[in-house]
Amino acid sequence: MARKTHALIDLDALRANYALAKTHAGAADVIAVIKADAYGHGMVEVARALQNKATVFAVAFLDEALTLRENGIKEPILLLEGPMDRSEIAVARANNCWLMLHTPQHLAWLEPEDIATPNQIWFKLDTGMHRLGLSEDEFLDFWHRQNADLQSNLSDHCVLATHFAKADNDPDFTRQQLISFARVQVLTAMRTSYSNSPGLLIEQIFADIDLPSESFVRLGISLYGGTPDSLLHPVYTAALTPVMTVKAQVLAIRTIAAGEGVGYGQIWQAPTTTAIATVAIGYADGIPRFAANRMYVMFADIALPVVGRISMDMITVDVSAITEEVTVGDMLEVWGTQQRVEQVAQALETINYELLTRLSLRVPRFYSST
């Protein structure tokens, strides 16, 4: 019999999270961000589940987009990292992909015919993230070198975008980013995109900034039921439903005496007589090795501590609280509906994004939908 450890992907929850974002985004088009294999949820399956709901998808680079095309996905796809070389512009155009241009080199590659299709060319401004993006001076130098007709075409067909660096915990910094963005937008009159998942929650900080209604918002972690670090809009975030539930199988149960250790290095010793379950998931499946003695797994509504080192294929769990209930073959929840992935991430001093995307492909995904 195959190992039972798996991830259950709730496609109804996915669609509900998307619909919730749509209501919160007003008139803006909500782009479903499905890069990195849809944050570990399965890019093709997620895209199929959102067909006829999401009108645009976003991925990191062209290879991801071509995988979607090979699997029958027809909607426009935004390439968030833009073209890797000049030849990709033609390939992207041929495959109805929109390009995020973010370096002076990208601007040098741009030809007038590249802006003939609405929304196909996006310009990313670096307003404080300092990761990707054109500085205000770099973009304005490009803009002022264009003749009036080309400027008009850019305004009519292109999108101006930026990325918030601290939207989930620093409204003042985010406000300054948006003020910088507005200086360029008012000159170019382009459509706009600046909100990511946490950006959807902070409209109050820029209600008085002179910008048109946002044309596109980019829905990432919230699509999967994940919440930003700070619950800036608790009614919205409380309504998000976790899409992924990871469960792992109990392989063995043993009782060890007080003072005996568990696992490599014996870094944890039992304080009293303790029931230990060995569970079929480990760092090869995506559980961080540094989770030793820091995280919990769930049996119904009972939190059980992971004790001892994380092994490649297994973890060990103190099941003394449920000795009478747990048996070999039972499934324990690593994260999902009983324990949100954010709770696990907080215990490990990391973020939900990392845990979701590092889940190994050897953990099979099963999809549910009514």
From TrEMBL:
Q: Which cofactor does it need?
A: pyridoxal 5'-phosphate
The record's Pfam families line, in alphabetical order, gives: Ala_racemase_C, Ala_racemase_N
Give the catalytic activity.
Answer: L-alanine = D-alanine
Q: Which UniProt keywords apply?
A: Isomerase, Pyridoxal phosphate
Q: Give the positions the UniProt entry annotates as the active site.
A: 35, 264
A GO term (biological process) for this protein?
Answer: D-alanine biosynthetic process
Positions that bind substrate: 131, 312
Where does the record locate the signal sequence feature?
A: none
- State the EC number(s): 5.1.1.1
Biochemical pathway = Amino-acid biosynthesis; D-alanine biosynthesis; D-alanine from L-alanine: step 1/1
Gene3D superfamilies found in the cross-reference section: Alanine racemase, Lyase, Ornithine Decarboxylase, Chain A, domain 1
InterPro entries recorded: Ala_racemase (IPR000821), Ala_racemase/Decarboxylase_C (IPR009006), Ala_racemase_C (IPR011079), Ala_racemase_N (IPR001608), Ala_racemase_pyridoxalP-BS (IPR020622), PLP-binding_barrel (IPR029066)
GO cellular component term of the entry, any: cytosol
Q: Which GO terms describe its molecular function?
A: alanine racemase activity; pyridoxal phosphate binding
Instruction: Using the record's annotations, give every residue carrying the modification N6-(pyridoxal phosphate)lysine.
Output: 35
- Domain Alanine racemase C-terminal intervals: 243-368
HAMAP family named in the record: Ala_racemase (MF_01201)
Query: Family assignment?
Result: Belongs to the alanine racemase family.
**What is known about what this protein does?**
Catalyzes the interconversion of L-alanine and D-alanine. May also act on other amino acids.
Q: What is this protein called?
A: Alanine racemase
Organism, per UniProt? Opacimonas viscosa
